[in-house]
């Protein structure tokens, strides 16, 4: 006679009951650092359609319940078909786990099945021991289920740091609170089966008090978990969903207090439904919140050319280009106030005698000056190599480059075609299908604008990984001019490059993951002509007036106020060192201790103003000084460019 499965056998699997057991899997899905979606789906189906039903069926086959059990008010009597079906489901689950998920998940699942059988089987029968049975359920349906779910969802083991210890404890306390409550109506039936449950030991009122204590401990652990990850607000979102559970628990407790008959199957199932609906909804919301793509900044690396010059050397080069005593005096005064000790250049001429020059005309007065074409040739000769020098310092770049989806190049000191982006793709052998874009001719704050574009890309694509490269060769635009604009620019600017990765998933290259929180901008039209430049036959003509610091000082505070930002909210500052007075006035305007701007002053002193990459040099120094106690702290970055434009970026140290 062919083997067949009757309707009652399927009913005893209590497949809908898996809905009550789904919250921990959904919680794990919402918190997993990485998600392998195909494995996650298979894990969910295997656990909820095979493992849990098989466990329910085996328990029903052994106990042969005549009174109501979880999910069935009037259960039918089991047959041998149910036993064989549970064996088939367990075998299928094991095979599918090995084939479609991973070995760790399969091992965890086999251990869970073994614990479930030991709990119900006549040979071991852990359920007849009130404390051993309780602890088995609490561990395997709590912490172990969360661990097993993470293994299936992420493809790897849960990292056992303090935060994850808290979440594992919270999961077990959650089950510790729920499980005795599900047994409160089964005291008489359990006694007939020779089973003494913890709920029976506690009594009706004691069970409710015990449940309240366990859920309180569960909440404490969840609070410690979320706050240790810098996500305290998520804890309060969870509490909102727990409100209906608490209300019905209180109502039911009051009913049982007055009449012990209210501790019945129907009220228990009502409790189960309310709890399951609220908790499943809560964790689905957490999945939506946590799986919405964000953007994280990581692995800023920098590079400078091989030629480094003391500020005195560069000042002397400038002095030798004129015999006018007044002009020479002005050059010395400006140089002494820059706060710069060293700058770098791709040009080898600045410490040589005129007859050794390779770029400038070989005479002291530097005439005729190099043409725009000559300057662009020098740019093309050095820009790609300097960019590569920064990029190739990114940790594990040979591996990371395979994951790069977008490339953004930034420069305002040179242009050529095919362009820096194509040159980098070719020399670094990047994926030819990478999406690329360029931010050109936008000045010192262009890095922030590029990061704004990278942020938008990552927030719209969960798998995005954007390589941003800022390269400037400011020194190739040295001009033999002596007006106030050029007294400033010739004494400020140097060469440099910075490269960084922005991705949708956090990476731990620093003490903490660095989440990009947002951007704010302002154009000061009254400074339109105070910072600008134009192309000319001999290179870039610079306008850089001494009024720029005044404009920034007078407008930075109103700007922040207008967009709801407060300086007191930020502990760390990465401000573009446009010049010493700009930095001084920025600090004064926001009433900041200059110690907070130490990285800015350091970069200005050691590199000068390199235009777009400069703020990234500062930010790199800020991030490398992060400490464990800085988790949750915010970082404020700002840069200033033509127009006059102010671009700001807000970041936060978060748990990866």
From TrEMBL:
It is found in: Membrane. Keywords: Membrane, Transferase, Transmembrane, Transmembrane helix. It is a multi-pass membrane protein. Residues 297-506 form the Chalcone/stilbene synthase N-terminal domain. Its main location: membrane. The chain crosses the membrane at residues 12-29, 41-62, 82-115, 131-150, 162-181, 202-225, 231-257, 269-289. Belongs to the thiolase-like superfamily. Chalcone/stilbene synthases family. This is Naringenin-chalcone synthase.
